[in-house]
Structure formats: structure tokens, C-alpha cells
Amino acid sequence: MVAGITGHQRLGSNAATVWVRRQVRTILENHRVTQGVGSLAIGADQLFAAVLLKMKIPYVAIVPCSLYAETFSKTDLPKYLYFLRRACNIRELPFEKPSEEAFYEAGKIVVRESDLLIAVWDGEPARGLGGTADMVEYAKGLRKLLVQVNPVKRSMGLL
Predict the structure, then answer these.
(1) Closest by CA position to 16, among listed 134, 98, 122
(2) Alpha helices for the chain (secondary structure H)
(3) Handedness of CA 75, 76, 79, 80 (dihedral sign)
(4) Which domain holds residue 36?
(5) Structural domains counted in the chain
(6) What is the mean pLDDT of residues 65-88?
(7) Which terminus of the chain, N or C, has fewer Cβ atoms within 10 Å?
(8) The model scores a pTM over 0.85
(9) Domain at 28, CATH number
(10) Do the strands 155-158 and 2-7 form a parallel or antiparallel pair, or are they unpaired?
């Protein structure tokens, strides 16, 4: 089974991040995931990649645009590059610059290539095109298996 990730870049406190990591691992184990897919953004995407690496599960990196690395701060860039180098496959979209359209298209690919989508999401509306809420709605439209991990309420369940 292929699992994809969509989620917030800011997960909250250290305790919330630890809790999310545990939930993601449990989901991957329970669904016998054999591959992951995501865009390696800070927050949920990189947490997902870290869990996959620890579990020795390969993952595909969907890079929204050729200048995606420029969206990372100097402190966040090394971590992104670390995860990118460890991807079993890298697919870069044909956008040059970062944009909401590029991020939305990358998110749609993550959803389409997933049997299961993990949404690390507080349930609030998206703040821009391609946000977590948009990806959840897209996944629902495709009738994907969808699990929400809410870092604010510390709840988990099917959507």
C-alpha cells in the first residue's frame, strides 16, 4: 500500500510533534505501507519522511518546481536536501518558480498516487490554494482512504 502525506508546516509544541510522529508510525504499521509519497515540505511532510526512513520504507519525492529549494530557510534547507537525497525516486513538476498552483498540482499528484492519505490537519480551511484542506477535499472526491491526525485536539480518525 502507498501512503501519501498532506499537512501543516507548523505542528505545534514538541509534545504535539512527538504525538503526531507516533500516530503516523501506527498508521503505517496498521496499513502495511510499502511506499510513501510526499513533497518534503517542513512540518508534516518531513516528519513523514523521517518515520518512513526509520521504518526502512522507500518514498517518492514530488518536487513542485525547479526552484522549490529556495522556499526553505537557511536552517531548513539542509534537512530538505537530506530527505530529498534519500528518496527512491524524485519527480519534479514543470513549474520553474514556487507558486500556489505548483503546490496544488504537487499535492494532487501525492493524492492520486496514494492508496491512503494521511492528513496532519487541524480541520481548518486552507490558507491558500493547495493547502491541507484542499488536499483533503480532493482526496474525498477521489474516494481515497483518508486518515486525519489532528495535532491540536490530539485525535485521529477516518474522514
Answers:
(1) 122
(2) 14-30, 44-54, 77-85, 100-112, 132-141
(3) negative
(4) 2-158
(5) 1
(6) 98
(7) N
(8) yes
(9) 3.40.50.450
(10) unpaired
